[in-house]
């Protein structure tokens, strides 16, 4: 074991792991005894543990025994025994930290240890995956362990929820059907009663276990009632938002936020952190302005009319540019109060035109502009850029412009995951973002050593002066490796480059599979086959994260695996360095899993975005003075280092941007917590508690509550309580969404004010607090006024909420606040003069 620790680990990390060593040994010592238990005895441990905890026993006290029980259950059900490294990882996860474990180390199995342990408390454990498919895979795969031990397992997907239920399997497996637990679940059906057949399949597949069709559809609420729930970050967070829009307590599906393990945590908490989740309604705002500006912008010239700052992704107009726009619009001065709207549209149209590129930042599909996640290369249907940028891009592409939308509820992943009493995560790449995890989430990163030594060779970069030379070399390299039967996984940074390279390979007659966000349906399956002999796979970065690449492609063909091993294992070829080192590491990590042979290399040119924008002049000058020919690479440690430091610089910049966003979001988050708390109280309050809230409102408004008893007689007790509750929820929702909108406007206005040397964040905090207070005040008053005038004939019947059916956008018939109507913040001023300013 000692050798495991000696590899370049930082001291504190090493010390930390050393301290865990006695615990690992204790768990190992328990193995013999646990092995001796019958199945029934092993199963009955769950009840014993639960009882122990119910009597006030500490989770920590049973950890060793619990881990040994889970390990034994995995041995009996999956033919897999948790490695010591996985036991370590399990402890780290249980402690609410991030376990950095390389790709292929078996994080899925690792997580079963803390998942089961924490689920014993009966408050539900959530396991967060990067996509729906993985949530199903893991629920079924690991479900076998939990189910055996008597815990319930569920899975929430975008439009369905399932409970793990082995008796649900319907069909017989076909003879000779190849079973691979990863794909595709629906086709891999087995009959749980036919134990012989199952065992036979298990024998032929060695340690691999068949995935059965064991997922039985259930309601969302049932899914959340399970001991363990698998699902994506999106589903968990959207359910949270939807729960806070419920009008009947039965509609609330989530329970507690007890403990969550986030798989691929860097992807979710860092890469996806910049787009908040939003539930919105369309707002009637004309699409014409977007069209007008989309037609004006192409008539401006770069440099003369505007300047571009690629680093900051910003465009700004020059004096000439402003004049030109004013002329084209036929208006005198655009920078007046009235013109501000134009400035905003113009700015977004410019960014849409100059900065955002089709097939790199987004794709156009079926008349829709769909964002491509810059880190994962994955399409993100349903997500929209905010502040009109999305509409500006729709105008640029000439597709239908979606109506501006009005936010009903929103949350960032940061803030959603902070709800959990304990949060932990796992990924192969956390260390380079350790500071961010620590500062933003208070999560510590622990590097868990690999089970077997890693023998992949990571070569230093080959740097070319020009893109063309680089690409030629890349094609040559692929051809050569392919010829000797070595599988090659090629990583590209964008879809257009991915397709370009594919075309070149086709011309050269190199058979290959193409994988980008446009074909993400088969993503997992293609990636899983990327280790086959001679296979060439051209993929965008990180496509198929979470899917295992087995050398030889098929777990049962040892011969092919040997061939691939002697050809050098999987060769990962990066065609460009990414902005974040983490993403490069992810790509490299595809190779060399579990002690496999493998190799990686990045090909870089000075024309790559990263080098062009961030690369140091030193490198460029050096290449120039050395007069290096286009197709001659230089391989130089200094350059590789310089690239690394350029990346670190950008990482820092992006971290700052996210931190900044978060600071703003925290203001709103506190307010959201208060409002949702009140809302929940109203939703779940019994008659007396409801009465208390309402009495408070009447006191605050200085109104006499005894009027109300007349209404109560008129309605009948029950109906009136319902009417009160409904109205209260409605008032909260109405004022809260108006408040959200007002905060949005306020935020852009404080940013404009930043010129006056005032810190916009402080302004935002102060102003936000004032507006919130006003909203709280007017909440009671509004309620009192409305309840006194409520008519039975109007039917305050239960609101039939439609939000379960629709996705991101929710239909809502409530009229929008008119510009000239009194401001809902209760200031008495017109909306346009107050919060709507
Ligand atoms: P990761 O998420 O860390 O990349 P996975 O959880 O996908 O890795 O597991 C990778 C492969 O390793 C899977 O095929 C899995 O069955 C196998 N594996 C994991 N743990 C063990 C173990 N203890 N013994 C045998 N095989 C294991
Ligand atoms: Mg994984």
UniProtKB/TrEMBL annotation:
Belongs to the SecA family. One of its GO terms (molecular function) is ATP binding. Residues 13-40 form a coiled coil. Keywords: ATP-binding, Cell membrane, Coiled coil, Cytoplasm, Membrane, Metal-binding, Nucleotide-binding, Protein transport, Translocase, Translocation, Transport, Zinc. Residues 2-635 form the SecA family profile domain. It holds the Pfam family SecA_SW. It is a peripheral membrane protein. Residues 88-300 form the Helicase ATP-binding domain. It comes from Candidatus Tagabacteria bacterium CG09_land_8_20_14_0_10_41_14. SMART domains: SecA_DEAD, SecA_PP_bind. It catalyses: ATP + H2O + cellular proteinSide 1 = ADP + phosphate + cellular proteinSide 2. Monomer and homodimer. Part of the essential Sec protein translocation apparatus which comprises SecA, SecYEG and auxiliary proteins SecDF. Other proteins may also be involved. It is an enzyme of class 7 (translocase). Transmembrane segments: none annotated. The keyword Hydrolase does not apply. This is Protein translocase subunit SecA. HAMAP family: SecA. Its EC number is 7.4.2.8. Part of the Sec protein translocase complex. Interacts with the SecYEG preprotein conducting channel. Has a central role in coupling the hydrolysis of ATP to the transfer of proteins into and across the cell membrane, serving as an ATP-driven molecular motor driving the stepwise translocation of polypeptide chains across the membrane. Residues 470-642 form the Helicase C-terminal domain. Its main location: membrane. It comes from the Bacteria. Its cofactor is Zn(2+). It is found in: Cell membrane; Cytoplasm; Membrane.
